[in-house]
Amino acid sequence: MKIAVCVKQVPDTWAEKKLDAGTKTLDRESVDGVMNELDEYAVEEALQIAEANSGEVVVVSMGPEKATETVRKALSMGADSAIHVQDAGLAGSDALGTSLALAKALEGKGFDLIIFGSESTDARMSVVPAMVAERLGVAQLTFANNVEVAGSEVKIKRQTEYGYDEVTGSTPAVVSVVEKINEPRYPSFKGIMAAKKKPVETVALADLGVDAAQVGLGGSWSAVVEFADAPPRAAGTVVTDEGDGGVKIADYLSTQKFI
Amino acid sequence: MAEILVLVDHVDGAVKKVTLELLTLARSLGEPSAVFVGNGADAAIATLAENGAATVYVADAADLLLHPVAPKAEVLAKLVADKAPAAVLIPSTAEGKEVAGRLAVKINSGVITDAVGIDADLTSTQSIFGGSVIVKSQVSQGTPIITVRPNSSPVEAAPAAGTRVDVSVDLSDSAKKATTTNKVEESKGARPELTEAAIVVSGGRGVGGAEGFTVVEALADSLGGAVGASRAATDAGWYPHQYQVGQTGKTVSPQLYIANGISGAIQHRAGMQTSKTIVVVNKDPEAPIFEIADYGVVGDLFTVVPQLTEEIGKRKG
Ligand SMILES: Cc1cc2nc3c(=O)[nH]c(=O)nc-3n(C[C@H](O)[C@H](O)[C@H](O)COP(=O)(O)OP(=O)(O)OC[C@H]3O[C@@H](n4cnc5c(N)ncnc54)[C@H](O)[C@@H]3O)c2cc1C
Ligand SMILES: Nc1ncnc2c1ncn2[C@@H]1O[C@H](COP(=O)(O)O)[C@@H](O)[C@H]1O
User: Fold this and answer.
1) Percent of chain B having pLDDT more than 70?
2) Which chain A residues in 179-198 lie under 8 Å from chain B, judged by CB atoms?
3) Would you give the end-to-end CA distance of chain B in angstroms?
């Protein structure tokens, strides 16, 4: 079984994120990059499925040179090889551009499963997996909190507002996983050393046959026209409970017309 | 007037409030048409008409319900091709965003997710980085597809014709590749739905266990609110995961959010920071959640919260 896992490098969750005044896109240079936390669950799930089905795991990531760190992390967790889509023309791509580049990188490689995180913590769109499924014309099995693979049949529990849906499909399939699904492993020292020797193929737009006009900031079909800091929340009142804390909140809620 | 398509969010014809918010918003952009996919259209049409839908497109063939996400995108793609609307508005739920993504690929249009407002020229407002930055965005190609967060617009009734127009689509093979075989409802209560509720009362690790949530529930019920939880509480199994608020849970934006025994980690704040009013009860005066509180009490939630619930009971009579 051949499994691809798509991982994205994002600014560290705790770092203060800024938009660049010129391009009006996320300033990725000034902050530390980490693997999108939710993609760690995708890597873990890919490894578990590969271990149970004598499969191989290929990491696929689109991002600048710096994203190599994230690719290496996935390899040190145990993935076998990687495809790093890297091209100056991709900077500033929207979800449509990203999904196009990823779909082209994945297409025709014989992947049975393509596993994603459910959301990137910077873009927070949760649309790339659905877009890739649409582009490749394969089954979309997303928001999984459980994945079962039996031969070519894939069954997931799709997390919903009210509980879950059981959704089935056949390989090849796109799967995205939510963070309840597993406990991602930490790279071992041995894993980190081994990762250094694992093959990473770097591909550019021309290699994928993607027209530069369709991706990057220029090819984005949605764009930020202006941005500003949100007006700061007016400083609130904090009191210490002296036996009447509940009554004080009730007083506050009354003044705000909630009671 | 330009036609604006609004995808209806419903359960077997019971229309969710976010749909009515979108119809109200759509009226400031053009003439709203509701797009209803699934069972129960007869029950829904009256509500949709009352809230401004001039037309209700209905797609209720059985095979549309068998498969997740893709059929809705295909119904919308067909309507965009036939009717050339000015925009498509979709509720910003997990599924809504996926529908928007597939639709964008199908019709070669730009997509904006999680809008909290839309101007007459279709410029969308988004609140990003946990509510610290306000962004205005535009779609530059195709028919703008915009997903809108629940609770970002008021609901104002405005009766319209609500003329039913049936729509049929031949599902593509790829739409049929995933099949929903079972729907499992893990919990359902009399409380309002988390993302739609005007008041949300949440509990975190400070609640101490599943039993502790009765204190949180009692407060929620006294205010007619929904119950939420931090990930620490859902991970521990004290409360079901679908009530988790935060980056990997629900994004809520109620009029009032009351956080009890929640420290205010960045991932939790990402899901509730745009609440209009935030009230906090936490025994640690250093808890970061106090930074975003409009009103906070440093104290033990097991004394403060029951007292508050009782006081609300008294005042409401
Ligand atoms: C990938 C990822 C995704 C995540 N997604 C989410 C998410 O969607 N939502 C989310 O909430 N978290 C999320 N988290 C987790 C987040 O980082 C925090 O760990 C979590 O929010 C902490 O929950 P808490 O505030 O309930 O617990 P804690 O941080 O342990 O805080 C408990 C608070 O309760 C107070 N307290 C204790 N006892 C009492 C008492 N008797 N009375 C009053 N106060 C009391 C304490 O002072 C403390 O401030 C995510 C983390 C990761 C890595
Ligand atoms: N640049 C990228 N490279 C690889 N995978 C990506 C990239 N962007 C998004 N993804 C994948 O798509 C998922 C959802 O991202 P998003 O739609 O941006 O919220 C992520 O969890 C990743 O698995």
Assistant:
1) 99
2) 179-180
3) 49
Task: For ligand 1, atom 49, name the residue with the nearest CA.
Answer: B263
Reported as half-sphere exposure (CB side, CA atoms, 13 A), residue B192 has a value of 21
Interchain CB distance below 8 Å, A140 and B277: no
Report which DSSP code applies to A29.
S
User: For residue range A7-31, what is the model confidence (pLDDT) as tens digits?
Assistant: 999 988 666 778 888 888 887 777 7
Residue A108 pLDDT: 95
- For the Cβ of B273 lying below 6 angstroms from any atom of ligand 1, the answer is no
| Ligand nearest, relative to CA of residue A133 | 2
Interhelix angle for B41-50 vs B17-27, to 10°? 40
Report the run of H or E that residue B23 belongs to, with start and end. Answer: helix B17-27
Tell which of B99, B108, B109, B111 to mutate to test the A interface (max A CBs under 10 Å). Answer: B111
Q: Evaluate whether B97 touches B113 at the Cβ level (below 8 Å).
A: yes
DSSP string, A46-104: HHHHHHHTT-EEEEEEE--GGGHHHHHHHHHHT--EEEEE--GGGTT--HHHHHHHHHH
pLDDT confidence band for A202 (50 / 70 / 90): very high
User: What is the reported pLDDT for B5?
Assistant: 98
Q: What angle do CA B120, A127, B4 make, to 5 degrees?
A: 25
- Is the C-beta atom of A116 inside 6 A of ligand 2? yes
* Strands A139-150 and A153-159, sheet pairing: antiparallel
Could you state, in chain order, the average pLDDT of each consecutive group of 10 residues for chain B (317 residues)?
A: 95 95 97 97 97 98 95 98 98 96 97 96 90 90 96 94 97 97 82 92 98 97 97 95 90 95 94 94 97 97 98 92
